[in-house]
Design brief:
Distance between the termini: 54 Å
Number of helices: 6
Number of strands: 4
Strand content: 15-25%
Strand order of the largest sheet: 2-3-1-4
Helix content: 40-55%
Largest sheet: 4 strands, antiparallel
Radius of gyration: 22 Å
Shape: elongated
């Protein structure tokens, strides 16, 4: 009887350990754990009609229009981290563009992609900022949670 209980406990413990190892190894591939991945989006307007949102987006190169419930939001920039956010905010202030920072949740794959551009976004060259920001905005579509 004692051997049976020890065998059952050993099998249970081994099963728990193997399950934990499997989940740990597969967490990135299967997204078991949902991280709170947020970025700051610079919004220039919220509209009830798609036509008005597209009209505003046409005034800003590389702007994207995202449907959020009953509204359409127009984003012209994305920032990850405070330093990056300050750089973009001062860039838009210098261009006399009124922006509204908004925290949005994105997928973990988008966060990995946006991290590649981090070193470029702290530069003050306007051409670099516009080019990198346009690439990030193109990748953002479909990555908002």
């Amino acid at each position: 009887m004692k051997k049976t209980i020890i065998t059952i406990l050993f099998a249970f413990l081994l099963g728990c350990i193997l399950s934990c190892l499997t989940i740990y190894e597969l967490k990135d591939k299967l997204n078991f754990i949902v991280d709170d991945e947020t970025v700051t989006a610079f919004q220039v307007g919220v509209y009830k009609s798609l036509e008005n949102a597209q009209k505003t987006a046409s005034n800003h190169p590389n702007a994207i229009t995202v449907k959020d419930g009953d509204y359409y939001r127009v984003y012209i920039g994305i920032a990850k981290g405070q330093e990056w956010e300050k750089t973009l905010e001062s860039y838009y202030q210098n261009k006399n563009v009124n922006v509204y920072p908004k925290e949005i949740k994105v997928t973990s794959s988008f966060m990995k992609e946006i991290s590649k551009y981090e070193s470029f976004m702290t530069q003050t060259d306007e051409g670099v900022l516009e080019e990198v920001n346009s690439k990030i905005l193109k990748q953002l579509e479909g990555e908002i949670l």
